[in-house]
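hey m, so remember when u said the tokens were messed up on ur end? i reran from scratch. heres the input so u can diff it against urs
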Amino acid sequence: MDFPEELPKEVRKSSYPCDICHKTFSLKSTLINHKIIHTGEKPYQCDICDKSFSRLQTLINHKHIHTGERPYGCDTCGKSFTLKNHLEDHKRTHTGEKPYPCDICGKSFAAKRTLTGHRRIHSGEKVHSCVTCSKTFTQKSDLEDHKLTHTGEKAYHCDTCGKSFATKSTLTGHRCIHVGEKAHNCDICGKSFSRAHHLITHKHTHTGEGPHGCDTCGKSFTQKSHLADHKHTHTGEKPYQCDTCGKSFAAKVTLKGHKRIHTGEKAHRCDICGKSFSRTHHLIIHKRIHTGERPYGCDICGQSFTLKSHLKDHKRTHTGDKPYHCDTCGKSFSQTYSLTRHIRIHTGEKPYQCDICGESFSDRGNLTKHKFIHTGEKSYRCDICGKSFFQKVHLLSHIRMHTGEKPYHCDICGKSFSYGTGLTVHKRIHTGEKPYNCDTCGKLFSRRSGLISHVHIHTGEKPYHCDICGKSFSQSSVLIRHKIIHTGEKPCHCNICGKSFSLKIQLSKHKYSHTGQ
């Protein structure tokens, strides 16, 4: 083909191929610029921050970051851009034009760079690598967001509440909290969400789908991030560290929740009773107190639970599985929290302190029970006899006295009990186990209550006071027996002749008159 003499030399050939990657260009100057990619040469340096670039135009565009200049303005909405091609892409948001289709799935995009990023979903290619930890990403924006986890920088601020975020997308999602906007609706149950990915995750609850599987144990997860955190349980890795106390965690969400211990933040409020919580799932669980919902049912015995983890632990009572072992004494447990509580017997740790009297406890439940002493609150009332209790579980156990139900059976001697703790304590008769040790004299006890009462012998403490005559006692059981003197109550009935007694021991002696033993 003959080109007219007046045409520039650059366009006298139909194409200029790169001799390294064989890509072709219509202009010789474009080929020269392209070859710099292969040589790694960056001859254009920014005189402000010293960053270097392979192309002059890229340097010019970069300098707009320092000057704040956005020379390309949209004539429809007035929004400005540092790059001309970014303006062209933006204009398509007004026209709705999407000229870049994916040749694999057919999805179309308004910007060529968005299509390029999308194609990597199909290819699995991750071209953007973090220089700090070597983690790779399909899109540059994801890498930039990731880098902030190393620097701790939170450049995006909410202009309503002032909270800061590492990524723009997180800020956008957060703003929906203030406006109450929930634009993403589930077409199955109608529930609405402020973020699209929350809707996607929610839909898995309907389908039961867990698309992200662990290649070590086979467990499946609805979210890829949950799988990544789960894998740390196999490796023992705890990459998320608290910058306040130094404690490390396997999951980012656990660190986030932990940090609220230091800040005292309780952002999630119950709209029924007003109680606030530091974590969303704590609020969800709390609300089940109001609704009575127990969504996790045992397929063996039918018992229901508010938490999935409680169901999992419960199932081990059927299987006898005890996978959690104490490194000190070798004792095994079916539940993690039972092991944690047990370990405190060895360490003497009492992390739960009463903010009224300062008394400390090894178990959170014991602190909760203790606090009722100060408040005097007994919210749970028996419909049969009118007796009130501090806790619902105590009421349920009490009701079994009326019904005679004893659902807990000893697999050694067959004896039955109306509540689980009674069976646990009973089994120590067979095993001889006495896990509670007196620090003063070394005496061992099979029950914690026995140890507590015993300790009062050493201290001389008599914490149980009669509100009628003021007399004090070292044990609650002795106070209960004492009060019968004032009330004249005789709660122990003989099932043979119907005679009543104040004390159980009196009833036992009486029964000998019937049996002759």
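this time it looks ok to me. The radius of gyration is 35 Å. if urs says something different then somethings off w ur setup not the seq
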